[in-house]
Amino acid sequence: MIAPQNSPRPKLPNGVRIYAMSDIHGCAHLLEQMFAVIDADMANSRPYRAIEVFLGDYIDRGPDSRRTLDLLIERSRRRNTVFLKGNHEAFLTSVLEDPSRAAEWFQFGGLQTLMSYGVSVAPGLGKDELSGLVRELSSAMPPEHIAFLRQLRPTFTCGDFFFVHAGVRPGIPLSEQSEQDLLWIRDEFLQSKRRFGKYVVHGHTPVRQAELLENRANIDTGAYATGNLTLLSIQGNSMLAI
């Protein structure tokens, strides 16, 4: 899907190509497939500078959050990568600091993450026992995974593009957006037709296929439920969703 042509197209600096993905949600097998697509594309066309931008929600809901973080961390050692924070990473970080929120996290897709680290869950556990599972998870998580979660950034800007997990609040300068909105906003952002100062690339709200609109691009295609993890390639003023 190519961006609309009836208005000036946003543009990246010359020689830069960006590959963007969002809302992997523990689908490590799909992430590996997309890495293979990127590697083949780079081998074929050899961009001057490639940046891989990940828009958050790496964990929860899907089957293998642990493997997903392993793959992303390993990728960062070999490629130019940018990792943004999603609401799921923010929530897990808060649960690790306050295990009493465990029940809320489990309703949010956290059980799958817990199990991916080898923590077994029995039905009918009380609040104290659920908190104990979170402490067990904290011990089971490799230090580099916890460091990864704590080092995620809220946004990334390159050229005319602004990358973020959920979106932005219309009418507020990009430099003054609250983290709450950057990670959680939906309707006010999605329904807005206005320009935001930059072209916003985001995820967070699943759509059947990637939406490349006049003012924003939504690349969350519900990988954990659909098996479709979208890759957005951007170079110059051209956007292609795969």
TrEMBL record:
One example of a Gene Ontology biological process annotation: RNA decapping
Signal peptide: none
Pfam family, one: Metallophos
Protein name as catalogued: Serine/threonine protein phosphatase I
Origin superkingdom: Bacteria
GO molecular function per UniProt: bis(5'-nucleosyl)-tetraphosphatase (symmetrical) activity; phosphatase activity
Record domain Calcineurin-like phosphoesterase: where: 17-208
Assigned GO CC terms: cytoplasm
